[in-house]
Write a structure and sequence with these properties.
Rossmann fold, 18 strands, six-stranded antiparallel beta sheet, 3 domains, 6 helices, Ubiquitin-like (UB roll), alpha/beta, five-stranded mixed beta sheet
């Protein structure tokens, strides 16, 4: 049996390799032309030290303490020259992908459909030519805008491994991607590069609080579809905040997921004081009671920079330090920015 290993590099690039039963990660990477850091390859120097963020593996006992101490091993650090996976794993590699003679992977895709979500957003669906890109739920890709020489970055809202890729895209008046999508015909070819990003779902071992701002909902739709196949999950709550009523999109998809995932619930919040929505204000004003679980909680946050900063201030003010806090900021598309709404 092969195990799929996600290598997350320091520059945000993720590459996937297959590791055979009994094969060491370093050997599997070299076999697939990814030169992970190494010097001795014998568990002596520690040059290949990385962090295993999820998965099961065996480190054996053929390395010395100077290369990897027992405290480091207990903290999830590994030597890829000794690490033998027994499941799929995610490994954080503390160098840029370019130093490992690898980099972005690109695939060709065609536009399958563009579905408007009122004047707030668009749902873009792409069919990939060949194998669909493998990604971790929550990650994003760069989508090239034909004829412009530019790209925009969007999180997957679809399930990893699905034949059709889906993205929830904020409609920006006059924006490069928005304007193109308003007129694009089905079948138009586009280039998709990635996956990218360190914002992705980790192993769920405690309650989870998800905070989405606007089209920051997209990565959570992907995460929740993955969680749908899990059993005996701890409580998961999503707070979905928007500026105005019209920005509340894909609520029907959340309702369907809530019906299928035991323990999952969501709350919607509208900032506009003129709204008739029952919950007005900011997401931090409508966190469900007990959702922070005295810090024994994993918090995931995707939204515009002011929202991210406000949530971080709120956690400081209430004196809660989550067991883990993963966040991604996005801004409206600009030519100089890689991560877009």
């Amino acid at each position: 049996m092969n195990h799929r290993i996600a290598l997350n590099f320091e520059d945000g690039v993720t590459r996937f390799i297959d590791c055979k039963d009994g094969e060491k990660v370093l050997d599997a990477a070299f076999r697939q032309r990814i030169n992970l850091p190494m010097d001795c390859s014998d568990g002596v120097c520690g040059t290949c030290k990385c962090r295993a963020e999820s998965g099961r593996y065996d480190m054996g006992d053929d390395y010395i303490d100077d290369a990897l101490t027992s405290d480091e091993a207990a903290d999830g650090l590994v030597l890829t020259c000794q690490m033998v996976p027994s499941s799929d794993c995610v490994i954080a590699v503390p160098v840029a992908s370019t130093l490992c003679k690898t980099g972005h992977a690109s695939v060709q895709a065609t536009v399958a459909s563009v579905v408007p979500q009122g004047d707030a957003a668009l749902v873009l669906e792409l069919d990939v030519q060949g194998d669909a890109p493998v990604f971790l739920p929550g990650q994003y890709v760069n989508i090239g805008v034909p004829g412009s020489g530019q790209h925009r970055s969007y999180s997957f809202s679809s399930l990893p491994g699905a034949a059709r890729l889906q993205f929830l895209i904020k409609r920006v008046p006059g924006g490069l991607m928005s304007s193109w999508l308003d007129t694009v015909a089905a079948g138009t070819a586009v280039e998709v590069t990635g996956p990218l990003g360190s914002f992705y779902l980790r192993d769920v071992q405690r309650p989870v609080l998800m905070l989405a701002g606007g089209t920051g909902l997209a990565p959570f739709l992907s995460m929740l579809q993955v969680l749908e196949s899990h059993s005996a999950l701890p409580p998961i709550h999503l707070v979905y905040g928007v500026t105005r009523d019209a920005d509340l999109v894909m609520v029907d998809a959340l309702e369907a997921l809530a019906a299928r995932i035991p323990g999952f619930a969501f709350t919607t919040v509208v900032a506009d004081e003129a709204s008739s929505h029952p919950r007005k204000g900011w997401v931090t004003q409508h966190l469900p009671e007990g959702c922070l679980n005295e810090g024994d909680v994993d918090v995931y946050l995707c939204g515009p920079p002011p929202m991210v900063d406000a949530v971080r201030r709120h956690l400081d003010e209430v004196g809660v330090r989550p067991a883990s806090f993963h966040y991604e900021k996005f801004t409206p598309s600009q030519p100089s920015q890689d991560r877009a709404a």
